[in-house]
TrEMBL record:
The entry's keywords: Cell membrane, Membrane, Transmembrane, Transmembrane helix
Transmembrane feature ranges: 38-55, 62-79, 266-290, 296-329, 397-416, 428-450, 456-475, 487-504
Alphabetical list of PANTHER family matching this protein: BETA-LACTAMASE DOMAIN PROTEIN, DNA INTERNALIZATION/COMPETENCE PROTEIN COMEC/REC2
Location within or outside the cell: Cell membrane
GO cellular component, one term: plasma membrane
Residues of the DUF4131 domain: 39-204
Coiled coil segments of this chain: none
Protein topology in the membrane: Multi-pass membrane protein
Organism lineage string: Bacteria, Candidatus Magasanikiibacteriota
Name of the molecule in the record: ComEC/Rec2-related protein domain-containing protein
Residue ranges constituting the ComEC/Rec2-related protein domain according to the UniProt record: 243-506
InterPro entries the UniProt entry points to: ComEC_N, Competence_DNA_uptake, DUF4131
Length: 511
């Protein structure tokens, strides 16, 4: 009887089918199992067979389709691993000479640069016509097509850019391995990387590989970085770069201070960041008497510009989508239909990359913070009815508390650090973040036209950043600012069960 009531609701059926797909992906991810595709196809055939047989029996038809959704999730996870015999990962454990291009934005760190190279050729001298003569072999290469991506660690110089074609000589291929509690292999799998290239001599042999549009976006990003370094000194230049496009280098001691006070998200491009900023911006627009519909499109346009500045990587786009979903929820009056949109978005993102569901903390924080802003914030906003709405102060407090509560169990599980001052610090500083970002953005644009005016704007933004840094430094000096506290997976699950009960209970009590 209970099942028949559930399947009569189209909205609930849709959510359950999406949950089935995500359950299939999550099961394979958590258990780290790879199943022969033959068995997967048999499961799909069986699900379709029972779906047709029990077409007129609603409950059994529902169960058949749910089973099919689970099997499709399992299939998506299985085919995410390289299947081609020409994939470079088939040669792990061997030394090779490879040719490819830098297919992602280089990851610049203090100890060197990490590159992801999309391989398209293998060079070999194993031609019997030359025997073992190294002189003749040097002037001849047998080119063989190959595919896949490799992860290459190199020094800070010489430095290569996206699209540069590289020849990797003496590349020792290795399969990524987990490092203690860190699933390093799955971390690289998110970028379709299943091989690490060690000890290679790198030679640049060409340019203009990859996507021309993405090259242009990265060129713009580098130009913006140059302007930022002109307008601000360190660590404020890196602070502004973090606000505008998620740059994490150059902050030095500020990184630890941000971590202790729980505000690291302000310099990270994630849904946790974008959803909060989007909420504050739309509230600010409405407070300026801008109609809600126009405010919606203004903020959506601002998010798109923000994403372009950040480089339009997959994680950045996912974060932007989550931020826009929050705006849609506000535009729709937070109706229940946003749940379908949110779940369908999670399915689409997992369909595009199944490894993000379990192994991408950024995706999880983005999804959960969006859930908090859509479902939890309406339940607690009455607690802050006495807080003035000027400059979006009330909305800032409610949004901050909602996102903090909903992501806390995951943060304790993933990172094992609890910031006891996170909530007050976020409430004190978050209201000014959109203004600093807007002033910083205009300062960068104006610097290309009239540098003296840009310097004036940069001083205003610098004052805002000084305000944040001083607040963070003061709270970070408190002995009780942060404690190391890691909860096990069952503890995280129990905490989310309590949160789900609270949201559903409040919802049922208000209907």
């Amino acid at each position: 009887m209970m099942l028949s009531r559930i399947v009569t609701s189209k909205s609930k059926r849709f959510l359950i089918y999406c949950s089935g797909f995500l359950f299939g992906v999550a099961t394979c991810s958590i258990l780290d199992i790879q199943i022969d595709l033959l068995y997967v196809y048999i499961g799909i055939f069986a699900a379709i067979f029972f779906f047709i047989i029990f077409w007129k029996q609603h409950s059994l038809r529902f169960l058949s389709f749910f089973f099919l959704a689970c099997i499709l999730g399992i299939l998506r996870y299985q085919i995410a691993f390289p299947l081609s015999s020409y994939d470079v990962s088939r040669y792990n454990g061997k030394e090779m000479e490879l040719v490819g291009y830098v297919s992602a934005e280089p990851d610049v760190r203090m100890d060197g640069v990490r590159y992801i190279v999309a391989v398209d050729k293998q060079l070999t001298t194993n031609n019997p016509a030359f025997g073992r003569d190294p002189v003749q072999a040097k002037h001849w290469r047998d080119k063989q097509n190959i595919s896949g991506r490799v992860y290459v660690k190199s020094g800070l110089y010489p430095r290569y850019s996206y699209g540069d074609r590289l020849q990797l000589v003496g590349c020792q291929l290795e399969a990524p391995e987990p490092v203690e509690d860190f699933a390093y292999d799955k971390y690289l799998a998110r970028y379709s990387v299943f091989s690490i290239c060690s000890g290679a001599k790198i030679e640049k042999i060409g340019i203009d590989g990859g996507n021309a549009l993405f090259r242009g976006i990265l060129w713009l990003k580098e130009a913006v970085a140059g302007r930022i370094n002109t307008l601000w000194h360190e660590p404020y230049a890196s602070f502004m770069a973090g606000l505008l496009y998620g740059y994490r280098g150059g902050l030095g001691q500020l990184n630890e201070l941000f971590s202790r006070t729980g505000v690291t998200h302000i310099v990270a491009i994630s849904g946790y960041n974008i959803t909060l900023i989007a909420t504050l911006l739309i509230t600010f627009c409405i407070s300026l008497a801008i109609p809600r519909k126009k405010a919606f499109w203004i903020v959506v346009f601002g998010i798109i510009v923000f994403l372009i500045f950040a480089g339009l990587s997959a994680s950045v786009v996912r974060a932007g989508i989550m931020g826009i979903l929050v705006l849609i929820a506000k535009q729709m009056g937070r109706t229940s239909r946003i749940g379908n949109v949110l779940m369908f978005t999670a399915v689409i993102m997992t369909l595009q990359n199944p490894f993000v569901l379990i192994y991408d903390a950024g995706f999880q924080l983005s999804f959960l913070s969006t859930v908090g802003l859509v479902y939890l914030s309406p339940k607690i906003e009455t607690w802050f009815s006495c807080v003035p709405k000027v400059l979006g102060l009330q909305e800032s407090i409610v949004a901050t508390l909602s996102a903090t509560i909903i992501t806390l169990p995951l943060i304790l599980f993933q990172f094992g650090r609890l910031s006891l001052v996170s909530l007050p610090v976020n409430m004190i500083i978050l209201w000014i973040i959109p203004f600093i970002m807007m002033i910083g953005f205009f300062a960068v644009v104006v610097s290309m036209l009239f540098l003296p005016l840009a310097h004036i704007l940069s001083w205003i933004a610098w004052g805002g950043m000084m305000y944040i840094v001083n607040i963070v430094r003061w709270f970070a000096t408190l002995s009780f600012a942060a404690v190391d506290m890691r909860v096990p997976v069952w503890g995280m699950v129990c905490m989310y069960i309590v949160l789900a009960w609270f949201i559903l209970r409040k919802k049922s009590s208000t209907t």
